[in-house]
Design goal:
Nucleotidyltransferase, domain 5, 21% strand, single chain, 37% helix, 5-stranded mixed sheet, 2 domains, alpha/beta, 308 residues
């Protein structure tokens, strides 16, 4: 019988849980809010309870637990190394040791954007690829990089924090990380909505902005074009460093094929040197809400081969 694993995807508002088999299929799912009381209950307490309740309702004991978590994740120690102050009480959370003790199972922990890329490489839009740049566009900009078939993690597992590489140092906007000019201040959905609301208060969400663009509003179309250019220039720089086969775009806005994915692909192709265009493909991620927990299980299987 194939082994089954528990995938846990911890975000800023909810934790998603799933039993994942050796083929990357999600066999059972659950989701609970981690912000239900304004974070008065520590996120890790909520996650631990949710995981225990989920497993109690299953008829099979998983071989191990793969965790995908928001924030700067020290995957060597299995702790949250930093959050730029965005989540109360999440800094220094000892995810791995807490879950191992509570569930009596081996646990690995990795950053959520890194897990998104791994999930897509395993069973999603990057199957068969060895060199991939993944970008998640939402409240901020997250990323994961696969090079030579290996996830780029750096010394502590913190590698791939592409949202905080600096694209506008001179006169740049202040970032929550304490620096100025970080890419996510210009390339996130938050950045798009901020610029849109300065022109029209009704454009108060990514959905509203894209709806106005689809309806033919010229002003918002120009604004959208400027925003896509910011994303494209950041990606072009990464392409010149990593020479990927594929760029994956995740996050809710990745569903916008005509208004985002296609023009972004064109802009990236136009912005990189000719040799780097050969074989380069940009597309939307496929796994959506399952990407983090599936990728977390793939990370577990890679780092705990005895569980395979």
């Amino acid at each position: 019988m194939d082994k089954v694993y528990l995938g846990v995807d911890i975000g800023g508002t909810a934790v998603k849980l799933g039993l994942v088999d050796t083929h990357g299929r999600v066999l059972a799912r659950a989701e609970e809010s981690v912000s239900f009381d304004g974070y008065k209950t520590p996120i890790l307490d909520t996650v631990t309870g949710a995981a225990a309740r989920f497993l109690a309702g299953q008829s099979i004991t998983p071989a191990g637990v793969g965790v995908s978590a928001t924030g700067q994740i020290d995957s060597v120690q299995g702790v949250v190394a930093g959050t730029c102050g965005s989540l109360p009480g999440w800094d220094d959370a000892p995810i791995r040791t807490t879950l191992e003790k509570a569930l009596s199972l081996p646990v690995t922990v990795a950053n959520d954007a890194n897990c998104m890329v791994l999930g897509e490489v395993w069973v999603g839009a990057a199957r068969g690829c060895t060199d991939v740049i993944g970008i998640t566009i939402g409240t901020g900009v997250g990323g994961g990089i696969l090079t030579g078939g290996r996830l780029l993690e750096g010394a502590r597992g913190l590698g791939g924090e592409i949202g905080h590489y600096r694209t506008h140092v001179r006169h740049g906007m202040a970032c929550t990380c304490g620096a100025v000019g970080c890419w996510e201040r210009y390339a996130s959905t938050t950045a798009l909505v901020r610029a849109a609301q300065a022109r029209n208060p009704a454009w108060n969400s990514g959905r509203a902005v894209f709806a106005a663009a689809e309806a033919g509003d010229r002003e918002v179309q120009l604004l959208l074009d400027d925003w896509i250019e910011e994303i494209a220039q950041g990606l072009a720089g990464l392409v010149h460093i990593f020479n990927p086969q594929r760029i994956l775009v995740g996050g809710g806005v990745s569903a916008q094929t005509d208004l985002l994915i296609r023009p972004l692909a064109d802009k990236v192709q136009a912005s990189v040197m000719p040799a780097f265009r050969q074989g380069l493909d940009l597309r939307a991620a496929e796994l959506h809400n399952d990407a983090g927990l599936v990728g977390a299980v793939y990370y577990l299987r890679q780092h705990k081969p005895e569980l395979v």
